[in-house]
Design a protein that fits this description.
- By secondary structure, this protein is α/β, with parallel strands linked by helices.
- The protein has one domain: Rossmann fold (3-Layer(aba) Sandwich), CATH 3.40.50.1110.
- The protein has helices at about 1-10, 20-30, 35-40, 90-95, 130-135, 155-160, 170-185, 205-210, 220-235, 265-270, 270-275, 280-300, 345-360, 395-420; strands spanning about 80-90, 105-110, 145-150, 195-200, 240-245, 305-310, 310-315.
- It has a five-stranded mixed sheet, with helices on both faces. A two-stranded antiparallel sheet has the order 2-3.
- A hairpin with a 2-residue loop joins strand 6 (about 305-310) and strand 7.
- It is globular, with a radius of gyration of 22 Å.
Amino acid sequence: MRVLFAFCVIFITTSRCVQGNSWLKNFKEAVKNFSEEELRKVDPDRSRARSFKRPRAFQCPDMSPSSSVPTSVELVKAADIKVIAALGDSLTTGVAANASSIVEEPIEYRQLSWSIGGQGTYDNVITLANIVKLFNPNVIGASPTSSVTGQPTTLNQTGLNLAITGANSRDFPAQARNLIHTLKNYSAINFTEDWKLVTVLIGMNDICDSCKNKTLYSVENFISSINESLHMMMDEVPRLIVNVVQIFTMEPLRQVQEPTVACQLQRLFCSCLVTPAENSTDLTEVVALNRDFQTKLEELLNSSTFFKNDFAVVLQPYLSSTDLPKLPNGTVDFSYFSPDCFHFSVKGHEEMAKGLWNNMFQQDGEKVQLANLTDSVTLICPPTDHPYIYTRPRALNSAATQGHTFALVTLLTSLAIVFRY
């Protein structure tokens, strides 16, 4: 059924199938010379059966909500989260996350997406939403099912996964506006009282497209779009925590080169990174741009700009320098990737989800950055002495530390004076 569904997207010219966006048009152009045998070749190791169930659940000593609804963003527990949402691009829409063949590439497996997927429970698939559901089973917004790139969607399909396949950072303000409108008009949400958690990952398509228009995809435009969008949310949405996941160091993706027809699609999705020759000027420029994106995003979000009593933006850096998953012999473990050698499979999505959850309960300056995806991430429980999502930015932590240091120095100086006399 799933293959037939995707087959319609690519080949049947109905009114819905031809209304694809530029991503889908580019995909169809890329595969038009593939044989039907190549399109339908199945690799069962890429996908997971819906009936999959892990033997042991994740449990913590304290999984209860606060005794009363918190009023401070610094006192929000996982169980206090009433609404979960996500913004971004194809990694968040879950493109090809459970695909076992090229023909399934346009399917957006939103229900398996690392930050917002809501298929079954944690026992079936590990996503941030399914972890939060262990603490609050009634959380609103997790994506229940799949959609197809380029076709209209409804909230019944997407939940509050409002990401768009193929999005660049310039599309982020429109996504933020759509999120605000949806939160205000979603009848099950108490817009004023409910605590909301939004996860954002966007900007990597800018890097993938940067050689096509260096001005449009500049670091200045990237930061401007992020800044505009976050200010919009801060000004208009009460009781909101925003996870901004630091973009990856993308150069290692050049190593994901499986000798398959499907792997050729990597050039479609990220030509500016994949096609330049090793040690070329073009490659040097795109790697430097990637690093500048990370640095400027860190500078923006480690300030106190996006922090107030009922709102915080938190930079989660766990994937900022992660190496590729490897097999014992040192070669790339392709089971973490979809057939296109670019997007993550459900296995990769689960590691992304676990790393994000852990970063949420690690304070700024102590957030773990994953060295690789080879070693499965072990989930942590919220610390008993601080069971809240860490939201205080580095700038304020530093100011507090400096204040404490100044007070200590003043005290010691006073004592020295006393004992001298």
